[in-house]
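Notes from the pairing session

We agreed to fold both candidates in a single pass and log them together. This is the raw record for the first candidate, unedited. Please don't reformat it; downstream parsing expects exactly this layout.

Candidate A
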Amino acid sequence: MALPVTRDAITEAYHRIAPHIRHTPLMSLNAQAFALDAAITFKLEYLQHAGSFKARGAFNGLLLSPLSKAGVTAASGGNHGAAVAFAARQLGVTAKIFVPEISSPIKIATIRSFGAEVIVGGARYDDAQAACNAYAEESGAFLIHPFDAPTTLAGQGTVALEWEADTAVLPETVLIACGGGGLIGGTAAWWHNKVKIVGVEPEGSKCLHAALEAGAPVPVEVNSVAGDSLGAKRVGQMAFDIAKDAIDHVALVSDDAIRQAQKILWRDFRIMSEPGGAAALAALLSGAYRPAKGERVGVLLCGGNVDPATVASL
């Protein structure tokens, strides 16, 4: 069955956005990292513009959009909003970003630092998205969805294209945190039938896991330390349509495991990761995903928008 996003679409997206994004590096760990007999590689996507992979989808959407004087708008827990605000500033477009009350102050400050107007649009992400939708319809502003749009999925899929271009031997398995599904959907579309993709979600925010169990996207409760980035109430339909055929399974991790992964990333690598950015590593450290002996495992570190004081407190 054909996936909703093709490798050709991802390749086209990469050529479109390459002048505007950072080509983020890989980091290969030593053979005994974390006392695991596995070959582990990090993709350092937290080094991307605006602090997360979201810049890829934001630029792809903006560069294809029919913009009006009303500019662009988006709803976001923080990272997508920061990425859209950054891309809009770079391309000379006005931006209005709707965020929920659970968004962290540092993410809101980051969005504002790129010149966008920030509107707090309700308690949770879905509330912010509803307010954003209403504004877009009323004003004519172009709406860039954080995960459930072909341009967003194709843009996020360029992470995998870039990773593949930078390595002589593909990873056998890649661990990817999942919120609304844009990142895992785009990555799985690129690597379908080539690499085993394992999604990682917090136990308190597991919309893709619930959708795969139910056979369709379903609403879930969101209560996790990673809720501002992995806190979608329902996985995107397009991401689900990809994931049901192109990912292996979803591993669930506790908030304690996520905090421990943040701590280890700072202690051992001097990497400041937000909770959502550390979730994929949490699956490896906690045993939620257990690699086979000698398995080549990729870990996508997808976001670094975190208050340094929070990391220090761990």
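Candidate B (folded immediately after A)
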Amino acid sequence: MKFKFIAAATVFAMMSLFSLSTVHAQEEDPSPAPVEVVELDSGNTAWMLTSSALVLMMTAPGLALFYGGLVRKKNILSVMMQCVFLMGMMSVLWAICGYSFAFGGTNPYIGGTDFILMNQVLPDGGNDAIWATEMIRFVFQGMFFIITPGLICGAFAERMKFSTMCVYSALWGLLVYCPVCHWVWSDAGWLYSGKYEALDFAGGTVVHISSGVSALVCAIVLGKRLGFGQAPMPPHNLTYTCIGTALLWVGWFGFNAGSAGAADAAAVNAFVATHLAAAAGVLAWSAMEWFKHGRPSVLGACSGAVAGLVCITPAAGAVNPIHGIILGLAAGVVCFFGCTSIKNKFGYDDSLDAFGVHGIGGMLGAVLTGVFATSELGATGGLIETGEFGQTLNQIISIVATAVLAIIVTFILLKILDATMGLRVTQEEELQGLDVTQHGEEGYIFL
């Protein structure tokens, strides 16, 4: 009996101690919460990969045909080679260090080395959604890195040495594009949030202002083409230019709507606003030509479409489609004067109007974003909605900062390259054409 009592007491004590220890463990060392499984959204992934392909198409064949048709026939291959070579060189440079310099680090002014050689971007055996999402941003943003120096090529077309163009484009991408991209689109950037937050949905500042202002400096430093102003230099194939315009227009849907980062309502709004801005740009530029020259031209209609697309780029996620029409009309008129009256007054040879369309159109779009931005789309309200000048002022600050950096770095780079490599081909080579002298090929061979 005594043994049974002791045994029962022992079992009871052990059960009590177990219960107390379990409660204590639950209080002091709780079980970890279940890990949330992050899954890759197939719809968003498909849209972003498609958008990346559309933006790449803008460089070639889009820009290659658009610019190629505007130069003389002895230089068409040189323009196409610039576009195709930049697709190769800038892609590799982006993977090595460009992406890291644009999006890495926590410094508000300069990117870091977090993503050098695609570190933290490559498959790592962990959650597929995490590295794949980073890789999507890598490849989508990389297409912007490709086309932006390609836009500058329009300013020095038909006269810059190909070797010098390669070195200039690589250095410009790292020293101008990456810093501005970091300012505007990196979480740490000083223009991304805070006191000076600037709205740039798809690259009005990062792409068009940086390239357009740099293009103007290139045109001035390199000087005019031989015979500019004395000999006629009409576009040799406007059919190419028209086809290139159509490809750019379609590709721009990936450029702007893809910048939403997902197949969502923001992408829908950006898509429609982009289309209507381009359409309005065609009408405005054609109307200006009709009024001034008595008839509209195919080149004018194409230029108006691109001007409208440039102007809506920073605003596509902050304004509605009706505002897009207003921006397109404004771009068609203002860029028309930029490519005619302003260029003629100052006499610089911006061969394919890179500054007149991208520089002026980008600055106009950035300012008008601050005017028409609406909080209904999740953006900071602009001047019309709030009656306050704050957002417009931030837009102007971003324009000035980008322009100053682009001017200083471009000028220094060109002077260094001129002293070491030389900027221009020889007079004999320029007269013969860059297709033969730089690449040993001809664009047209008729037997």
